[in-house]
Write a structure and sequence with these properties.
Layout: H1 6-32, E1 37-42, E2 45-50, H2 56-64, E3 68-72, E4 78-81, H3 83-88, H4 93-96, H5 110-119, E5 126-134, E6 140-148, E7 160-166, H6 168-233, H7 238-268, E8 276-279, H8 280-291, E9 297-303, E10 309-312, H9 314-330, E11 336-345, E12 348-355, H10 383-393, E13 397-403, E14 407-415
Parallel strand pairs: 9-11
Antiparallel strand pairs: 1-2, 3-4, 3-7, 5-6, 6-7, 8-10, 11-12, 12-14, 13-14
Helix pairs in contact: 6-7, 7-10, 8-9, 9-10
C-alpha cells in the first residue's frame, strides 16, 4: 500500500472539515425550523424526507380554519393558500398557487387593493379592508381582508400574509334584519296613518256634534235653572224635595255631557296658550271646589312656598287638574284621600295629583294616554289623552306612578320661565 503524502492527507482533512461544516449547518437549520424536508441521495436515487416538528399543529390549524389564508411573494404571487380560500374561489389550491392574487380581485377594487398591499409592506404594519373578490366562474364574493407582513427570522424574503373572511353570511343576516326592521317600520307607520285618519274623522265629527249638542244643552240648562228657582219658592213638601233631587241628577248628567263635549273639542281643536302669572294655590282650590268632592274623600292641597306663583295658562291648567281630580275621585268609590301637591323640581314646577284608590293594572299602563282607550263603563277614553295634549301645549310633560290596591299619582311638570 502506498503511503499517502502529507499533501494528500491535508486535502482529505480539509474535505472532511467542509462536509462536517455542511452537516452542522444542516442540523442548525433543522433545529431552527428553516428546513421542511431533506433530499438524500441513495442507491435508489434521491429520496425526499419531510420533517414533522412543532409547526405541524399550526399548519393543521391554518388548513382547517373557516377563513381563507394566503401567503404572497414579493411580487404578490400566491405561494400558499388553504382549502377554505380555494373553496371560496371555487377552485383548488394547486390551481391558485403560482397565480397573481390580483386575478381574484374585482376591477372596482384593484387599485385600492394594490395600494393597501404596498402600505402593508411597512414594518409592523397591518391593514384591513372590505373588498369584493371574484371566482373563476365570475361570482362576486364580499370579503373582509386582513393584510400583514410579519418579520420572519427564517427567511430574508418579504412574504405578505392575507386572512380573508367571507361576508356573505353576515351580509345576508344584515339584509334580513334590515328587511325585517323595514317591514316593522312600514307596518307601524301604516298603523299610525290609519289611526291619524281615524282620529281626524272623529275630530271632524266631534266638532259638528259638539256644536249641534251644545246649543240645545244651553237651553236645557236655562230651563233647568228657572225650574229650580220656581221650586225653591214653593212650600216645603216631600214632592218638592223629590223634584229637587231629580233636578240635581239632571244637572249632574248635563255636567257629564258637557265634559264629553269639552274633551272632544280639546282633543281636536288647536290649543292656544295665554301664559300669565297665577296663584297655584288658588287654582288648585278652585279645581277642588268645582269638582264637588264626595264626603267620603278627604281632599288636601299642599303648595310649597317656591311654587305658589307660577307662569302658565290658568284655564288650560284647570282643565288638566280637573280631569286628573275627576279620575282620582272615580278611582276611590269607597272613599279615600286625594292630595294635590305643588313643588319645585330642578328646572320645572311639578304639580302632582295622588289618590289612594284601586290603582292601575300593569297590562294597561302603556295604553293609558291612548285616545278612545278606557276601562270605565262610562267614558269615551279622551280624558287622559286631552290631559297629555294640553300639558304638552303648556310646554310640560306628564307621568304617573301606580300600584294596584294602593293608588295612583299623576305628576305634571311645567317649565319655569327663563330669567
Amino acid at each position: 500500500m502506498n503511503e499517502k503524502t502529507t499533501q494528500e492527507l491535508n486535502s482529505e482533512i480539509q474535505e472532511l472539515r467542509t462536509r462536517l461544516a455542511e452537516a452542522q449547518e444542516t442540523l442548525d437549520a433543522i433545529r431552527s425550523g428553516e428546513v421542511d424536508g431533506l433530499v438524500i441521495s441513495t442507491p435508489k436515487g434521491e429520496q425526499v424526507y419531510t420533517i414533522s416538528g412543532a409547526e405541524t399543529p399550526y399548519r393543521v390549524l391554518i388548513e382547517e380554519m373557516r377563513e381563507g389564508a394566503v401567503m404572497l411573494s414579493d411580487d404578490y404571487t400566491v405561494l400558499y393558500c388553504n382549502r377554505s380560500f380555494a373553496q371560496m374561489m371555487q377552485s383548488s389550491p394547486e390551481e391558485i398557487v403560482g397565480t397573481k392574487i390580483e386575478k381574484y380581485v374585482t376591477s372596482t377594487y384593484t387599485s385600492l387593493f394594490k395600494k393597501t398591499l404596498s402600505c402593508a409592506k411597512k414594518p409592523l404594519s397591518s391593514k384591513t379592508l372590505e373588498i369584493t373578490l371574484q371566482t373563476n366562474n365570475g361570482d362576486k364574493i364580499p370579503v373582509m381582508m386582513s393584510i400583514n407582513q410579519p418579520e420572519l427570522k427564517s427567511t430574508s424574503s418579504n412574504n405578505t400574509f392575507l386572512i380573508i373572511i367571507d361576508l356573505r353570511e353576515r351580509m345576508a343576516a344584515e339584509v334580513e334584519k334590515y328587511t325585517r326592521n323595514l317591514e316593522n317600520m312600514v307596518e307601524e307607520r301604516t298603523k299610525r296613518l290609519r289611526e291619524s285618519e281615524r282620529l281626524a274623522a272623529i275630530g271632524q265629527t266631534a266638532g259638528m256634534v259638539g256644536h249641534d249638542i251644545r246649543n240645545p244643552l244651553q237651553a236645557i240648562i236655562s230651563e233647568l235653572y228657572l225650574a229650580k228657582a220656581e221650586l225653591l219658592e214653593m212650600p216645603e213638601s216631600d214632592r218638592k224635595n223629590s223634584t229637587l233631587d231629580s233636578l240635581k241628577n239632571i244637572e249632574n248628567d248635563i255636567g257629564y255631557i258637557n265634559k264629553i263635549i269639552l274633551d272632544l273639542q280639546d282633543f281636536t281643536r288647536t290649543i292656544t296658550i295665554v301664559a300669565t302669572k297665577i296663584d297655584l294655590q288658588a287654582v288648585c282650590e278652585d279645581v277642588l271646589i268645582k269638582s264637588e268632592i264626595p264626603e267620603n274623600i278627604v281632599a288636601i292641597c299642599k303648595i310649597e312656598r317656591g311654587a305658589k306663583t307660577i307662569t302658565t295658562d290658568p284655564d288650560a291648567l284647570k282643565r288638566v287638574l280637573g280631569n286628573l281630580v275627576s279620575n282620582a275621585v272615580q278611582a276611590m268609590p269607597e272613599g279615600g284621600e286625594l292630595t294635590i301637591r305643588g313643588y319645585i323640581e330642578a328646572n320645572s314646577v311639578a304639580v302632582s295629583v295622588r289618590d289612594t284608590g284601586v290603582g292601575i293594572p300593569e297590562e294597561i299602563k302603556d295604553k293609558l294616554f291612548t285616545p278612545l282607550f278606557t276601562t270605565k263603563s262610562k267614558g269615551q277614553g279622551f280624558g287622559l289623552a286631552v290631559v297629555k295634549r294640553i300639558t304638552e301645549a303648556l310646554g310640560g310633560t306628564i307621568s304617573f306612578e301606580s300600584e294596584v290596591g294602593k293608588g295612583t299619582k299623576f305628576i305634571v311638570r311645567l317649565p319655569t320661565p327663563k330669567s
